[in-house]
């Protein structure tokens, strides 16, 4: 009898533990479902229906560092550096030439590359990039001329799209200069249709700086759209005439409410990365990259890959941070708690985990806490807290987690519930 009674008690305790875990799982599932409703419909079928950009595109673009000083040799060297530096292994694919590669149009209207800077031609250059296992991107403009007054694609959409396809282009960044009097949606729809008719899958990057709120109409037209003005290699500049673009913090603030519009095949683009450029500090580089990952932003490096420091390379190739950006659920993170200088941001992940940023906007070290209620977890849920920059588990706790965060820095975390 004593043995039977002990066995009965053990069975009852086991059932109770299982029921408790089931309740916790159910609570977490319901909380996640509620979060998905609040955040938006991300994770649905790709809007374009073509299977492209199911996760945010990753690559490199020439503009932020080199502006008009582009050449065949630069692109070849950058492709080599991407393959050799660990960038390609970390997920970067696209090598994109921005403005200034083109100089004129031939008698039949075909766009002509600068023969001095690109003596082998664009197709040979694309072939070289492809030989490295990478993808090749190019730039044009919806207006009569590009921002640097090179030939634009207005009235040449079908011809340019066919030319790009024949060259082996995989990605087109399409700007919005010299487009006075044009209808934004109509202009981008024309190139979108031309690319789809070209016979080659080409990711279409809309770059009209958020002026027509493309997040409200561009899903299914492009795969990503710029949501703000141009970024600058600065932390908190505001885009005044004396500033070179918008600062990292300004852009984060401007895209914080756009999370309902992002998802597989259709992404908000807060512009290319400035990691490694300007006077951004190591902490600011880290925070910048962390936010672009949490925002499910395209990760287009804009630095000199041939000469980047070990510290910059470490930021750009942090595969644990990149995994947050590339999470297949495709949800853009959002702010869930803030005071004047301390903020908590959260991004739901496909495996039921949460990516969390504890952001110190101030200059002095501060303690910042995330409450489980902030991120849709039941208070009793135990979660493993992973520090994505230290690449180590920080704790296994329930209810809340706090960390000391240096000025202009972040703690980038992954909370994985234990059941």
Fold and architecture overview:
This protein has 419 residues and is an alpha/beta fold. It has 2 domains: 2-39 and 334-418, Immunoglobulin-like, CATH 2.60.40; 58-325, Alpha-Beta Barrel (TIM Barrel). The protein has helices spanning 2-39, 63-66, 72-85, 87-90, 122-131, 157-167, 184-196, 248-255, 282-294, 310-316, 319-325, and strands at residues 58-61, 94-96, 102-105, 111-113, 135-141, 171-175, 203-206, 224-226, 267-269, 299-301, 334-338, 342-348, 354-360, 366-371, 382-387, 392-398, 400-405, 409-418. Strands 9-8-7-6-5-2-1-10 form an 8-stranded parallel β-sheet. A 6-stranded antiparallel β-sheet has the order 11-12-13-18-15-16.
Quote the average pLDDT: 91
Please give the share of residues in helix: 25-40%
From the alpha carbons, calculate the radius of gyration and give it in angstroms. 24 Å
Strand order of the main beta sheet, please? 9-8-7-6-5-2-1-10
């Amino acid at each position: 009898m004593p043995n039977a009674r002990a066995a009965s008690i053990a069975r009852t305790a086991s059932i109770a533990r299982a029921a408790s875990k089931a309740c916790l799982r159910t609570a977490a599932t319901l909380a996640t479902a509620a979060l998905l409703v609040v955040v938006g419909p991300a994770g649905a079928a790709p809007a374009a229906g073509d299977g492209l950009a199911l996760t945010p595109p990753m690559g490199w673009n020439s503009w932020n560092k080199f502006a008009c000083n582009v050449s065949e040799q630069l692109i070849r060297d950058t492709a080599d550096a991407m393959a050799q530096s660990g960038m390609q292994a970390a997920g970067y694919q696209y090598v994109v030439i921005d403005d200034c590669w083109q100089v004129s149009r031939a008698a039949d209207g075909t766009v002509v590359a600068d023969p001095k800077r690109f003596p082998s031609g664009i197709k040979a250059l694309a072939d070289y990039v492809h030989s490295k296992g990478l993808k090749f991107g190019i730039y044009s403009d919806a207006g009569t001329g590009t921002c640097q007054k090179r030939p634009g694609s207005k009235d040449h959409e079908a011809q340019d799209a066919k030319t790009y396809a024949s060259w082996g282009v995989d990605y087109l960044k399409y700007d919005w200069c010299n487009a006075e009097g044009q209808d934004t949606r109509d202009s981008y729809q024309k190139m979108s249709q031309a690319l789809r008719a070209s016979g080659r899958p080409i990711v279409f990057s809309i770059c009209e700086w958020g002026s027509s709120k493309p997040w409200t109409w561009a899903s299914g037209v492009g795969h990503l759209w710029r949501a703000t003005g141009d970024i600058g290699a600065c932390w908190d500049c505001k885009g005044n005439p004396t500033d070179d673009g918008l600062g990292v913090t300004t852009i984060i603030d401007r895209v914080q409410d756009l999370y309902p519009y992002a998802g597989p095949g259709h992404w908000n683009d807060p512009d290319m990365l400035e990691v490694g450029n300007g006077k951004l500090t190591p902490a600011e580089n880290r925070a910048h990259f962390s936010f672009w990952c949490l925002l499910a932003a395209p990760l287009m490096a804009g630095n000199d890959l041939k000469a980047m420091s070990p510290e910059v390379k470490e930021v750009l190739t942090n595969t644990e941070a990149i995994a947050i950006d590339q999470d297949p659920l495709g949800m853009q993170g959002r702010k869930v708690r803030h005071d004047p200088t301390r903020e908590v941001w959260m991004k739901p992940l496909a495996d039921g985990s949460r990516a969390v940023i504890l952001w110190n906007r101030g200059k002095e070290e501060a303690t910042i806490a995330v409450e489980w209620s902030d991120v849709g977890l039941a208070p009793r849920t135990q979660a493993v807290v992973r520090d994505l920059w230290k690449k180590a588990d920080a704790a296994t706790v329930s209810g809340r987690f706090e960390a000391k965060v240096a000025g202009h820095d972040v703690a980038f975390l992954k909370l994985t519930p234990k059941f």
